[in-house]
Design a protein that fits this description.
The complex is a heterodimer of chains A (115) and B (115). Chain A has strands at residues 4-7, 10-14, 19-25, 32-38, 45-51, 56-59, 62-67, 72-77, 86-92, 104-105, 109-114. Chain A is an all-beta fold and 115 residues long. In chain A, the strands form two sheets. In chain A, strands 2, 4, 5, 9, 10 and 11 form a six-stranded mixed sheet that branches. A five-stranded antiparallel sheet of chain A has the order 1-3-8-7-6, with no helix packed on it. Chain B has strands at 4-7, 10-13, 19-25, 31-37, 43-49, 56-57, 64-66, 76-78, 87-94, 105-106, 110-114. Chain B has no helices and eleven strands. In chain B, the strands form two sheets. In chain B, strands 2, 4, 5, 6, 9, 10 and 11 form a seven-stranded mixed sheet that branches. A four-stranded antiparallel sheet of chain B has the order 1-3-8-7, with no helix packed on it. Classes of the chains: A mainly beta (115), B mainly beta (115).
Chain lengths: 115, 115
């Protein structure tokens, strides 16, 4: 089955700097990779996702890159702000072509942005 | 949190008691999910349901049970057979059934503590 590794587990940056979180996955059939942000005491919220036919996707200060050959994908946050402080989870899913595949989550990265 | 509600936010129970966690959505989503989150861990899938009156086990279903009698409701029962029930429980839903790539929207979670 799929296994997702996420690094680092904690990340501290100064406001305005960039933050990068990396994930690797094991199943080469995986084709959908979402990123979730979880604030303290709340449920995760989708912030960006990428599918296997795309190498990079951007949404304002957030970008995700995917390297299918190496089986890794990364989240990039530029010009970080204190409100970016949260736990970020990557996930991978295998589409079984009509039946439900399960989201497999990484263990999370706690990002702290210092003013 | 969208239109997904979980109640209560905090729940305390004595060891050996069954407890039911509520999850309701008014988004008209077909699929619903239950995840468990432990400190420093990613989310792990307990059960999911694609349509009314149907549900499947996830990776850690032992000691849990669910029902899906209505499209908008997917309650989770934590039974006394669950060895370590203290955790943060998250309910999610997605628009489409049998669509592995469809975005999952999470509720605010219920923190269960077994004394």
């Amino acid at each position: 089955g799929e296994n997702v590794e996420q690094h680092p587990s904690t990340l501290s940056v100064q406001e305005g700097d960039s933050a990068v979180i990396k994930c690797t996955y094991s199943d080469s059939a995986s084709n959908y990779f979402p990123w979730y942000k979880q604030e303290l005491g709340k449920g995760p919220q989708l912030i960006i996702d990428i599918r296997s036919n795309v190498g990079e996707k951007k949404d304002q200060r957030i970008a995700v890159t995917l390297n299918k050959t190496a089986k890794h994908f990364s989240l990039h946050i530029t010009e970080t702000q204190p409100e970016d402080s949260a736990v970020y989870f990557c996930a991978a899913i295998e589409d079984y072509g009509g039946s439900q595949g399960n989201l497999i989550f990484g263990k999370g990265t706690k990002l702290s942005v210092k003013p | 949190d969208g239109g997904i509600t979980q109640s209560p936010k905090y729940l305390f129970r004595k060891e050996g008691q069954n407890v039911t966690l509520s999850c309701e959505q008014n988004l008209n989503h077909d699929a619903m999910y239950w995840y468990r989150q432990d400190p420093g861990q990613g989310l792990r899938l307990i059960y999911y349901s694609q349509i009314v009156n149907d549900f499947q086990k996830g990776d850690i279903a032992e000691g849990y049970s669910v029902s899906r009698e209505k499209k908008e409701s997917f309650p989770l029962t934590v039974t006394s057979a669950q060895k370590n029930p203290t955790a943060f429980y998250l309910c999610a839903s997605s628009i489409l059934a049998f669509a592995a790539w469809d975005t999952q929207y999470f509720g605010p979670g219920t923190r269960l503590t077994v004394l």
